[in-house]
Design goal:
Largest sheet: none
Structural class: mainly alpha
Number of helices: 2
Radius of gyration: 19 Å
Number of strands: 0
Strand content: under 5%
Mean pLDDT: 77
Shape: rod-shaped
Helix content: over 70%
Low-confidence stretches: none
Length: 53
């Protein structure tokens, strides 16, 4: 069961916790976005070539 399914299950069991579950999903999405940026953008563009003179 992934995080989204867990949040949905918690909501169905206790609808009052919807705001908490929403915040958990937002945090999870933020972390995934940062990991994507680090792996796919920064790591590929930070290739420096140095030459000795």
């Amino acid at each position: 069961m992934n995080l989204h399914e867990e949040c949905l299950l918690k909501y169905l069991q206790n609808p009052d916790e919807l705001s908490y579950s929403t915040e958990v999903l937002k945090l999870n999405n933020y972390i995934l976005e940062k990991q994507f940026i680090l792996k796919n953008i920064i790591a590929k563009t930070a290739n420096f070539h140095y030459t000795l003179k």
